[in-house]
Amino acid sequence: MVNMMQNRPAGAQLAAFLEGVSIEVMPRTAAKVEDFTAILPENTRVYIAHIEGTPIEEMVDTAKRLAAGGFQVMPHFPARIMKDTAELKDWIDRYVSEAGVEQALLLGGSPTTPVGKLDSSIQLIETGYFDGFKRLHVAGHPEGNGDIDAKGTTTHVDEAVRWKQAYADRSGIDMALTTQFVFAAQPMIDWAERLEADGITMPIHAGVAGPAKLQTLIKYAIACGVGPSLNVLQKRAKDLTKLLKPFEPTEVLTDLAAYKAENPDSLIDKVHVFPLGGIKNSAEYIRENG
Fold first, then answer.
1. How many structural domains does the chain have?
2. pTM for the whole thing?
3. Distance, CA of 110 to chain centre
4. How does pLDDT run along the chain (290 residues), one tens digit per residue?
5. What DSSP designation does 136 have?
6. Residue 273 maps to which CATH number?
7. Which of 66, 83, 233, 267 has a CA that sits 20 to 30 A from residue 20's CA?
8. Which of 205, 196, 202, 183 is CA-nearest to residue 252?
């Protein structure tokens, strides 16, 4: 079986790797899409990013719309934007009762200063409010996280992954690590192999940025703390002929697909697309390559 996968053309490997790909939207961008069923395959997992200041009503309305379209809905629950556990419970109740949500992405969130006392995805899990969910995803950081490990180590993020693995083992909930986007495959591969050596079994949904202008990607990459793989963009930026052309994730995805074909048991399991250049552009890319 492995040899058959290894001998597949690069395009076929990429198409296989893109099976089950997920994507994310925000309510304000979702509102600009007239019909999601026209651009995304049925049953696609769609994350709903919760940016600080977005009313929960808009989040739930977006979830209802996507669920009605036949998509798997996975809203973000960023700990640092919540006032308290009462607000967390209210959000969960609304998603479940109004949109039938049974999946969630739990994360600390981008604000460095929490609105309330909640600061991490571990605290969200410890409330017990998600124990009835069928699937939970948590954030993965292949290139580290400066907000958590300020000295450039991975001590705290590694401890957090081990804690979440233990929770997955005892709860029986399907869990996965959805990663920050990268622009090169090797950091993702090295991280996955290190986690596996540490006894982690949660699958990895590798984050990549959808097609976008180079300047846009560099801006987001710096803001999100992308590590060594940022060099890929910086090198491309030196070529003036490529500055105005959209940057596509083909190289990183092809490399990851080839690695997965050679290592079918790798933790690297699926792809998650951050549509930084617009959801329609990313959806079109998925259709053309999947």
1. 1
2. 0.89
3. 14
4. 334 344 455 789 999 999 999 999 999 999 999 999 999 999 999 999 999 999 999 999 999 999 999 999 999 999 999 999 999 999 999 999 999 999 999 999 987 899 999 999 999 999 999 999 999 999 998 986 555 655 555 678 899 999 999 999 999 999 999 999 998 999 999 999 999 999 999 999 999 999 998 887 877 777 766 666 667 776 766 555 555 677 899 999 999 999 999 999 999 999 999 999 999 999 999 999 98
5. E
6. 3.20.20.220
7. 233
8. 183
